[in-house]
Write a structure and sequence with these properties.
ten-stranded mixed beta sheet, Alkaline Phosphatase, subunit A, alpha/beta, about 25% helix, Arylsulfatase, C-terminal domain, four-stranded antiparallel beta sheet
């Protein structure tokens, strides 16, 4: 077995569930009855923890045999862990926009990281990428602020510079995320988060904590690095000691915040959401530098629409309301956070803003029904792959590559590693999903790449200077 190869049995063992459990959409290891949802009549606090580039299998509770994440694992034990949660894009800025606006990146117009990069001689010219979250977007923070919430933003923004920073998007308290050392920023951001919680303990609050970790460059406290250098390595995986130390350093930060919530008696009043902005990065987009991580058993990495680029860890804890120890395989997306938090806060969305997300409150409290036809992606840019779109409907996933129209069809229930392309074997299913994907692109005004008049096959792999345009009005 290669270092990055997992079998289906390995996956089940890593996830800690058997085949029967995978067939159940939401299953709790806690046999007590789920409580009714009296908290829906209150205003809970929200702590949204966003990690940068964390892969689906980076946490112990998601199957890592090398990384130690006891605090995040405890969140999963006390809440609900999603096995089929998705970032709306395989890179950061579009997913971040989807969280705050409740809209697919194609609708917002941010379809690549800001400012983006491109290949001048590639087969296609990629569409323009909006360089900021529009001020007319009504964010989660805007709505919650109107409903009496203290709003705070700490960390990486990556949705535009002045005048598009968090303080212009509904956040009253802001600690910027100017990037220096990852290990120092984790501690600084944690201190800021604790201070914000202490200052707002007597009112409902929405704190958005956006880490740079575990994005490269690799940095962590030396004592943690030495710990993993000396730790026995599992038979498979990359098992990078510095990356593992970064993951544990992040976990320690979260542990400090959990302790503070407990000390202040806020733990049962606070909805904690843990999420990653895209799949894990194995190596730089240009192929330089070391391989730092793996998304196995998922295929590929950040910058692609394979599962390794878009399926991410997601945990929600809300004591007394979310049944502890629940594992859920319902497909959900980052566009769902907006309507979910608003419903929990008893707030209504702006009637003039189209929402693409669905509230997952029925999943959280295990009451009512959750219905969705499909989840969509549009990534018309070059990164670790070529421009493409994708749709997931039930267990079926179709990918359409824009350079040549190639289709790939997978049944994720049987083939989580996307090894068996069924597009030729099942042409009717492929056509049906392709039509649905095309109809969705039209509905959100998705911009498509166009033939590149400067296409040079011999130089198509080369990267050019990043395109920087004036902000779109």
């Amino acid at each position: 077995m290669s270092r990055d190869t997992y079998t289906r049995r390995d996956l089940l063992r890593a996830m800690g569930v058997g085949a029967a459990a995978l067939a159940i959409r939401c299953k709790s290891s806690n046999t007590a009855d789920a409580s009714p949802a009296p908290g829906l009549n209150k205003k809970p606090n929200f702590l949204f923890i966003l990690v940068d580039d964390m892969g689906w299998s980076d946490l112990a509770c998601y199957g890592s045999e090398f990384h130690e994440t006891p605090n995040i694992d405890r969140l999963a034990e006390q809440g609900i862990r999603f096995t089929d949660a998705y970032a709306a894009c395989p890179v950061c800025s579009p997913t971040r926009a989807s969280i705050l606006a409740g809209q697919y990146p194609a609708r917002v117009g941010i379809t690549d990281f800001i400012p983006g990069h491109y290949r001048p001689w590639a087969k296609l010219t990629v569409p323009e990428n909006r360089l900021q979250l529009p001020l007319e977007s009504v964010t989660t923070a805007d709505v919650l602020k109107e409903h009496g919430y203290a709003t705070g933003y700490i960390g990486k923004w990556h949705l535009g510079g002045k005048p598009y920073l968090p303080d212009k998007q509904g956040f009253d308290s802001v600690i910027s995320g100017v990037r220096n050392r990852n290990d120092k920023q984790v501690a600084g951001f944690t201190d800021g988060a604790i201070k914000f919680i202490e200052e707002n303990k007597d009112k409902p609050f929405f704190l958005y904590l956006s880490h740079h970790t575990v994005h490269i460059r690799l940095e962590a406290p030396q004592e943690l690095i030495e710990k993993y250098e000396n730790k026995p390595k599992p038979a498979h995986g990359v098992n990078n000691p510095v990356y593992a130390a970064m993951v544990e350093h992040l976990d320690n930060s979260i542990g400090r915040i959990l302790k503070k919530l407990d000390e202040l008696g806020l733990d049962d009043r606070t909805v904690i959401i843990f999420f990653s902005d895209n799949g894990g990065l194995r190596q730089r987009f240009d192929g330089k530098g070391e391989i730092v991580a793996t998304n196995a058993p998922l295929r590929d990495e950040k910058g692609t629409l394979y599962e390794g680029g878009i399926r991410v860890p997601m945990i929600i804890r809300w004591p007394g309301e979310v049944k502890a120890g629940t594992t859920c395989s319902v497909p959900v997306s980052s566009v769902d956070f907006y309507p979910t938090m608003l419903e929990l806060a008893g707030a209504k969305p702006d009637p003039n803003q189209v929402l693409d997300g669905e509230s997952i409150v029925p999943i959280l409290v295990q009451m009512g029904s959750f219905k969705r036809d499909a989840i969509f992606w549009h990534y018309p840019h070059y990164h670790h792959s070529t421009p493409a779109g994708a749709i997931r409907q039930d267990d079926w996933k179709l990918m359409e590559f824009y350079e040549d129209g190639r289709l790939e069809l997978y049944n994720l229930g049987d083939d989580i590693g996307e090894k068996n392309n069924l597009a030729i074997e099942m042409p009717r299913k492929a056509r049906q999903l392709k039509r649905a994907l095309a109809a969705w692109r039209e509905s959100v005004g998705a911009k498509m790449p166009t033939p590149n008049p400067n296409h040079d096959p011999a130089r198509a792999h080369e990267w050019g200077r990043r395109q920087r345009r004036k902000p779109r009005k």
